[in-house]
Amino acid sequence: MNFEWSEEQQAFRDKLHAFLQANLPDDWEEFSKHGPASPDLTEFARTFCRKLAENDILFPHWPREIGGAGLGPWEQQILAEVMWEWGEPRGGQYMNVNWIGPTLVRYGTEEQKSRYLPQIARGEMLWCQGFSEPNSGSDLASLRTRAVLEGDIYKVNGQKIWTSYAGLADTCFLLTRTSDDRKRGITILLVPMDTPGITVRQIPSLIGEGDIHEVFFDDVEVPVTQRFGEEGQAWEIISYSLTNERLGIPRYQLARKALDRAVTMLKDSGDFAQAPVRIEAARCAALCEAARTAIYAIVQKRVDGLAVGPESSSARFATVMAERAVSEFVVEFVPEALAGASAYLQMHHQRGIVAGIASGAAEIQLNIIAGDVLGLPREPR
Amino acid sequence: MQLSLNEDQTQILDFVDSLTRPYAAPPLHDASFALTSDQLDAELVENGFLDVMAIEELGAVTAALVVERLARLPYAVEAAASSLVRPLIDPELPRPICLVEEGQLRKPVRFLKPGATVVVVGPSGVRSFTASAEQVREPVGEVLYGYPVAYLTDIPDDARRHEVAPDEVLRAWRVALAAEAAGLLAAALQSVVTYTSERQQFGRPIATFQALRHRLAEAQVVTNGVYWLALKAAGTGDAGDAALAALHAQEAAKRVGYDYHQFLGAMGMTVEHPLHLWTYRLKLLTAELGGRGANALAAAEAIWG
Q1: Which ipTM score applies to this complex?
Q2: B120, B168 contact by CB (below 8 A)
Q3: How many angstroms separate the CA atoms of B103 and A79, rounded?
Q4: Is the Cα dihedral A35, A40, A46, A48 positive or negative?
Q5: Per residue in B27-70, pLDDT tens?
Q6: What element of type H or E holds A128?
Q7: Is A281 within 8 Å of B300 when comparing Cβ atoms?
Q8: Contact residues, B window 25-64, toward A, CB-based 8 Å cutoff
Q9: Terminus of chain B with fewer CB atoms < 10 Å: N or C?
Q10: Within chain A, which residues score under 50 in pLDDT?
Q11: Which B positions 242-271 lie with beta carbon below 8 A of chain A?
């Protein structure tokens, strides 16, 4: 075992930081404080991701045959850490490089690949994920947005909710119901967001301006050529996608940076000399580093070519604990940060609440740990 | 970054498992708070399992892995100090090694007995001596910890001074504490998982109730965190990493201790069930090195100055 970065890995991290330092605007922290899904940042990301692409750092971990540099899972993690630490200047395009691209390569038709991959590779495309519905959150397989095939057109009716990026996305990766079979009745359609019949409404939120939306589909017509995979194949495809996304966002990194930033402010004010403050800060650091090493243990499995299993839920819950602890630390000891004194800490605090809710609720992670890591007998249903 | 076990580590852990197999279950009729085995101790020494840190291709991470594995046994073994701290001071010091903080003679000392090596660590340096019968006071009354303990009556003036810096010994001590706690936490959790999966009430195993499932799942998360932080601290040799690992271990021990006994219901009040062998060791570990507050302060100092 070796817990140090290799020289090449450290150089890669330094190169990314230097690039961001040189290419982000001077008022970046203020500009990006509403998070990666805010309209301003989404718009900014369209230009910025093009720049990343031109410098070969948009998707360096992709295989060479689809335009990547063939770097490994550690580099992917470093890339994700650096970007998230800087407030995710890729905006919603992080999804493209993490899972949409690889999933397109595996399951897309030739037409779909040639249509979307070059746009993704140029850093010009924004997707949204039409997954959750008002009555299908954690129980995603109960979703009801229906797609009915009439000739060679699917007619889509229903509603999605909590959809990030929907207001500005080009295309929706949409889960629809095509039969009553719970999981095998779900089908993916790739739907241009300017298709007639789609209405997007922004939901005012605590987590940053313009992040979440509801999306209505009224007799939206989608050509059968825009079906992704076979009818009923959605569950298999999103399970595959999740293996690329399962590690989630490296929230421990931003939490740790936010903690360090809060400590700097406390040092400036002289309050970091107080033992209760120092003790609590150390507790937060332990939680951040525990989450980090738990995630790294999973990255190692990917490096070794092993299947990533339920331990990813454990690592994700560790991240939730770290996020909460740091958020509470800031409120308790640096309350001014959330009242205009630090755009960075404000951004962290707004994102922190998302950790236990998005991409599978924390309680679902605990269910998975109980059943599949600890092997406890199943709950009766 | 390379976090998988190498071939040597896998092999050593396999050896440890096969050697300790006869000791994997507590004896049926021993209902003591602290369970020890001279024979197990002798076998570990004989096979060199407490000396792996000094072997170049094995090192501190392997030593921490061995300590973690041994701590899962129902038998208490003085492995952590011998494996992870002794090599820094003098690899030849006779065991057991009893680590004592300078100025803390009121506290019970794990594994202390006449003939043991006492290592005193503090601002005035690192000293060691062999405890005589007069320097060891047996506790009066019952001991509620899962370790054999005794009190040190005094520190002789002619105790041997060692060159090593006290901070370095404290760092290694924190790694040792975290690695041992990681094994204790894992074994305690496993024993609760087994019991709650078998015990039926209301017509089904009690582990099917979410009131227990989620708390056990959270316990798994913190246990996993302690394991990785302990290994990382062993690997980097960094003072901040060591203090964070010790802090997280003590936080975890505090968090799960009462839950585990609670989940066993009335069985959690007995010595018949072996759970206490691990949790009542964790209790004493939470008092070590000044407890959570002191380790947190040490971490803050190392990280932020």
Answers
A1: 0.97
A2: no
A3: 49
A4: negative
A5: 877 767 889 999 999 999 999 999 999 998 899 999 999 999 99
A6: strand A127-130
A7: yes
A8: 61
A9: C
A10: none
A11: 243-245, 247-248, 251
